[in-house]
Amino acid sequence: MNPETPKKGTDGGDELPGSDGHPMDRILRMDRMPHIWCPGCGLGTTVSCFALAVNECGIDYDKLCVVSGIGCTGRAAGYLRLDGYHTTHGRAIPFATGLHLANPDLKVVVISGDGDLSAIGGNHLIHAARRNLNLVVICVNNFIYGMTGGQVAPTTPEGMKATTSPFGCLEHPFNLPYLASSSGATLVARWTTLDVRQMVNTFKKAFMKKGFSFIEVISPCPELYMRRNKLGDGLAMMKRFQSDRLVKHGADPKEADLGATGKILVGEFVNLDRSTYADAYFRMVSQLAEAKSVRKEEAKPGGKSPAQAGAKAPEAVGEPKAKPRPAEGDREGRGPEKKAAGTPAVATSPP
Amino acid sequence: MDSGYPEKLTMQMDGTPQAESPQFWRKPIDEGKAPKLVGVVLMIPERCKGCGWCVEFCPRKVLVISERFNIKGYHYPRVAKPEECVDCRLCERLCPEFAIYLKRSPAQGGS
Ligand SMILES: Cc1ncc(C[n+]2csc(CCOP(=O)(O)OP(=O)(O)O)c2C)c(N)n1
Ligand code: SF4
Ligand code: SF4
Ligand code: SF4
């Protein structure tokens, strides 16, 4: 490792014999590299932290799915060697909702931009949080619409310039952690792209969390947001993070307003437990199946008492021909299969 | 609102120890007893886009921007003080291009 004797055209830091490449290469689609992100953009760092969190918490790659919307951030799903889906603009959460409810033992992660999640997809975000869907939403906030050339976003700080606000943005930006927590999210955190260690820890926590997790990652966009506002390069924003951020775990998200300058409150703001939508849904499905089987047993000549019939619920609901409405019968027909496979009706435990 | 945390915790940033902020440093109680980790920095120079984050935020100032440039035309970092690296892996996590990574020194059981 003598810097004076570079090997293979590198200055003192080449692959050593026995080295097996970058540890992140396992989980990235290296055939798609180099990625499209500009020099000094924080999106690579966010994906790097995500990949590290996945590797460190040992979650099965087959039990993890990444869904992205459109935007620079939306490219993340395509760069990860995991099952993923690149949805239309703003619709990452609806797609993830279906994916999660149809496959309750998958961990579904949404990685998308602030514009995608809080502008066109804003309604989906608040309702997913309200329903407490078992999703992880990683929202990369770069204060602007990156991919389309720097239009104003719902997160652009007041007074900052964008192509669609050449004299400065007139609007008050969203405080995303406050929006998520007041809508009902059970894990709410914010980190900057400099807080790599904390980001990895929060991602790991979110993978294990049962409920809606919202993690905002503040990231520099040197090409569009920073250049137009004469804020320097990505390194300048990272230095601002270093001097301006204030770690305050458990802080009231209401205080987490972001301005163009001033303190950046970061930390894990909210971490609570609340019944999830999937819990309630599968509880209802099994209750309905049980009630139906009780009615059937009673109707049979010499039928059993309701208590006995109740215990036999799984077999009793599996008679599709007797159902008046095929759609409903179809849906209920899944009940016994689940039970037969040894999965409880409330099959929502995340990996 | 109820945050689910027992009490509020307030602290200044501690993740990136800086030479300029000595007030956050204290003498470790196991100093001298615990082995000092030594890392070996590995670079994949063709991937680097020269953002300079690894150089700026390395707590031991192991890296410097090299005079050379890679195939894309960016000046990539060079390991100036290999013996100073403590294997903290901050550079590995920070690098947006997956261009820099660490191995534990062979003397400490690294491969
Ligand atoms: C329905 C629809 N409307 C608009 C667009 C154009 N569009 C593509 S990306 C984007 C904004 C992305 O911004 P953000 O989510 O903040 O991601 P970033 O690029 O900043 O990471 C827009 C408006 C689109 N692709 N589809
Ligand atoms: S436009 Fe902005 S957000 Fe998009 S890759 Fe470039 S720096 Fe990153
Ligand atoms: S591992 Fe830590 S000490 Fe070593 S080069 Fe990277 S940032 Fe510097
Ligand atoms: S962080 Fe990565 S891309 Fe940036 S200068 Fe260092 S090696 Fe190059």
Task: Provide an overview of this structure.
The complex is a heterodimer of chains A (351) and B (111). Chain A is α/β, with parallel strands linked by helices. Chain A is built from 14 helices and eight strands. In chain A, strand 1 (64-68), helix 2 (76-79) and strand 2 form a beta-alpha-beta unit. In chain A, helix 5 crosses helix 6. Chain B has 111 residues and is mainly beta. Chain B is elongated, with a radius of gyration of 17 Å. Residues 1-22 of chain B have low confidence and may be disordered. The chains are: A alpha/beta (351), B mainly beta (111). Chains A and B meet through helix 1, helix 7, helix 9, strand 7 and strand 8 of A and strand 1, strand 2, helix 1, strand 4 and helix 2 of B. Strand 7 of chain A pairs antiparallel with strand 1 of chain B, so a sheet runs across the interface. Residues 39, 41, 58-60, 62-63, 85-91, 102 of chain B line the site of one iron/sulfur cluster (SF4).
Question: Might you state the CATH topology name of the domain at 30-106 in chain B?
Answer: Alpha-Beta Plaits
| CATH topology descriptor of the largest domain in chain A | Rossmann fold
- Using the coordinates above, name the CATH class of the largest domain in chain A: Alpha Beta
Strand order of the largest sheet of chain B: 2-5
Q: Within the largest sheet of chain A, what's the order of strands?
A: 2-1-3-4-6-5-8-7
How large is the share of residues in beta strands of chain A? Answer: 5-15%
Q: Helicity level of chain B, as a percent range?
A: under 10%
Q: What's the SSE pattern of chain B?
A: EEHEEHE
Q: Kindly report how far apart the N and C termini of chain B lie.
A: 50 Å
The class by helix and strand makeup of chain A works out as: alpha/beta
DSSP strand (E) fraction of chain B?
A: 15-25%
Named CATH architecture of the largest domain in chain A: 3-Layer(aba) Sandwich
